[in-house]
Write a structure and sequence with these properties.
11 strands; TIM Barrel; 9 helices; 15% strand
């Protein structure tokens, strides 16, 4: 597995220092203009036929799915070309998470929110709102430490505390067995022992195929251009944002319209167990 170097970012995720890319903005804008005429299918979204919509739902079974996201692991989700999984870390956070939810709602798009336990505890109504609007509530530890810098027992305790706190805030009860067995390492600071531990516990580990670098201050327009350039280069995949940053919330409405204009399709990830339970209830 590729090793990355990390340093903590103030008030946000630790920033991955490897794979840092300096982007020539003029070249990116030219590429976007060249692609602007690609067709996109209309989505039916509450009277908004131009909405992006959610193309399909992908059920992920932790028992058979390895750790995914090519920035960190050898494989990613079984996505088709130009399919995108939208993920948000570190929330919920008043103001910015609300704005992210509003943008997703306007385009009938579903995403996955990897919540911090401490933020879910502090803002339980907002955590519940994420679930109520049909998004996947996933996990990101309790307090965002770099787990690879800790002993295995301490790291597992931190993970379990996050599971319990988020589920308590969202569902009214929580334990070390999460309702949604999806986890992302803070700062992507994993190691083989931790990944193996989570695999044995049937917890799916998500990295990313590309990220917004939104732990770095930049204008919303610069961030939008940066992410689009990376997305075009990757051809799709798991995209990492943070719903705790105003620049991300501000750029998201335009970015979602860009996805529609450039014929990208959003895939919503859910646990396979949730799908099975729903199907059983319907029989």
């Amino acid at each position: 597995m590729m090793q990355l170097a990390f340093v903590p970012a103030i008030g946000a995720c630790a920033r991955p220092m490897a794979n840092t890319i300096r982007i020539p903005i003029s070249a990116v804008v030219g590429a976007l203009l060249a692609l602007a005429t690609l067709p996109a299918a209309a989505a039916d979204c509450g009277g908004n036929p131009s909405a992006l919509g959610t193309a399909r739902t992908l059920a992920v079974d932790p028992a058979v799915t390895p750790a995914v996201g090519r920035k960190h692991f050898p494989v990613t989700l079984p996505l088709k070309p130009k399919e995108v999984v939208l993920t948000f870390d570190d929330g919920p956070w008043p103001g910015t998470t609300d704005a992210v939810l509003k943008a997703l709602r306007a385009e009938c798009v579903k995403a996955s929110f990897f919540m911090l336990g401490r933020n879910a505890v502090a803002h339980p109504a907002l955590a519940r709102k994420v679930l109520a609007e049909g998004h996947t509530v996933a996990h990101h530890t309790y307090s965002h430490p770099l787990l690879s810098h800790m002993s295995l027992p301490r790291a597992e305790a931190e993970i379990d505390r996050g599971f319990a706190a988020v589920d308590q805030a969202v569902y009214g009860s929580g334990s070390r067995v999460p309702r949604t067995p999806f986890f992302r390492f803070p700062g992507f600071a994993s190691n083989a022992a931790l990944v193996d531990l989570l695999a044995r516990r049937r917890i799916a580990v998500f990295g990313a195929d590309l990220w917004a670098s939104d732990w770095n201050p930049m204008s919303p327009q610069h961030q939008r251009t940066l992410v689009l350039q990376r997305l075009i280069h990757a051809g799709g995949g798991i995209v990492l944002f943070h719903d705790t940053h105003a620049q991300t919330a501000k750029m998201l409405p335009d970015f979602l319209r860009d996805l529609k204009r450039l014929d990208y399709r959003v895939v919503h990830i859910v646990p396979a167990s949730h799908v099975a339970s729903h199907e059983s209830a319907g029989r």
